[in-house]
Amino acid sequence: MGEPSRSVYLDNAATTFPKPEVVYEAVDGFMRGVGGSAGRSGHRRSVEAGRMVYAARETVASLLGIPDPLRLVFTRNATEALNLAIQGLLKPGDHVVTTSMEHNSVMRPLAAAGKRGVASTAVRCAPDGLLDPADLEKAITPSTRLIVLNHVSNVTGTVQPLEDVARIARAAGIPLLLDAAQSAGRIPIDVSASGIDLLAFTGHKELFGPQGVGGLYIGAGLEPEPLCYGGTGSRSSELEQPGELPERYESGTLNAPGIVGLGAGAGFVRTVGVDQVRSHELGLLERLLGGLAGIKGVTVHGPAGLRDRAGIVAITFEDAQAPAVAADLDSRCGIAARAGLHCAPCAHQTIGTIETGALRVSLSYLNIEEEIDYFLECLAGII
Ligand SMILES: Cc1ncc(COP(=O)(O)O)c(C=O)c1O
């Protein structure tokens, strides 16, 4: 079989593709035109690299409503950011409340912390993935030191009731760590207004940055232990890790090309407007769900209403296996979509697809209606 004549990318929950043109230009421009190591030397290339990294920090902070850009620390990805918060804050005897819809980037650090005496409760969500905030409130104990919430499920696109959870966390005086890997850039987030204490994001999904960069917002008063110690370009005569942010958590040469690319991606989203991104994705999602409803033998998982959904859809089939459908979509139609458990076995357990996995179709702002129609036509043909 030859190469399919078309190429449609519907695996944006894994990583967005393509990126806006400004992102390619920013990475290329930095690497060819600047190239210095940020915050390390006094020459112009290093100073300019430092300025560009700070500009990216400001852009991401303003997009997410983070009051002080210096409290946003860059990491390799959301996984590292979540690990920094979880491993850095929790001590033996502490208790964590989370949900059954979390990604393994939360579940595995919690399992590892369990071996060091940190207990956790994963509150069971409904089969559509939605959390009942009252259940989360009931799971809080006098030892609870952290609440971890997946904002948008990478399996079903379920949007959790963040404001209710933030209110409960605030009333109980427990820091809330939001996993915004799938929501940052996709749905409006205002860290200040919502009272989010810690926010982990990744750069390469709906913020449209390159792979290899993410970050953690650390609210005032919180001081996780660093995951990593080393050179920061500051206080070089001292053997103690600096206390100032962001250096405390940014040891080693920064991924400046990635950070600058992330700044360009976040700037693109800010210019378009997150409300506009959301409304475009909801339009595509409505078309996708409407089309899927007309194909026999297809089950769509996740909330019934669009309001509780983002542009990620999990699908199972009466007479076909998701991996075989994904392989056919790729080889016959040139459509990229992901089958399996999506690094979130507990979420699949919750929605009842742990045995079969599901086909996940995930959108970005750069998808268009015609791609949805092509996918629906191909899917109907394959199954
Ligand atoms: C909900 C969620 N959290 C965390 C992550 C981890 O992101 P990364 O792989 O960029 O670290 C992902 C990645 O798919 C995710 O979907």
Model regions low in confidence, pLDDT < 50 over at least 5 residues? none
**Series of secondary-structure elements, N-terminal to C-terminal:** EHHEHEHEHEHEHEEHHEEHEEHEH
Task: Give the % helix.
Answer: 25-40%
Distance from N terminus to C terminus (CA atoms, Å) equals: 19 Å
* Main beta sheet strand tally, sense and closure: 7 strands, mixed
Number of strands: 13
Mean pLDDT: 97
Output the structural class.
alpha/beta
Rg (CA only): 21 Å
Overall, the morphology is globular
Spatially, the strands of the biggest sheet line up as 2-8-7-6-5-3-4
- Tally of helical runs: 12
Task: List cofactors, ions and other ligands.
Answer: pyridoxal-5'-phosphate
Beta-strand percentage range: 5-15%
Word description of this protein:
With 383 residues, the protein is α/β, with parallel strands linked by helices. The chain is 39% helix and 15% strand. The chain has helices at 21-33, 44-64, 78-89, 104-114, 133-139, 162-172, 191-194, 256-272, 274-293, 322-333, 345-351, 369-382; strands at residues 8-9, 72-75, 95-99, 119-123, 144-150, 176-179, 198-202, 214-218, 298-301, 312-317, 335-336, 338-340, 358-362. The chain has a 7-stranded mixed β-sheet with strand order 2-8-7-6-5-3-4, with helices on both faces. It has a 4-stranded antiparallel β-sheet with strand order 9-10-13-12, covered by helices on one side. A two-stranded parallel sheet has the order 1-11. Helix 4 (104-114) links the parallel strand 3 and strand 4 (119-123). Helix 2 (44-64) packs parallel to helix 8 (256-272). The longest helix is centred in the N-terminal third of the chain and has 21 residues, at 44-64. The chain is globular, with a radius of gyration of 21 Å. It starts with 7 loop residues before the first strand and ends with a helix. The relative contact order is 0.18. The structure holds pyridoxal-5'-phosphate. Pyridoxal-5'-phosphate binds next to helix 3. Residues 77-79, 103, 105, 150, 154, 179, 181-182, 202, 214 line the site of pyridoxal-5'-phosphate (PLP).
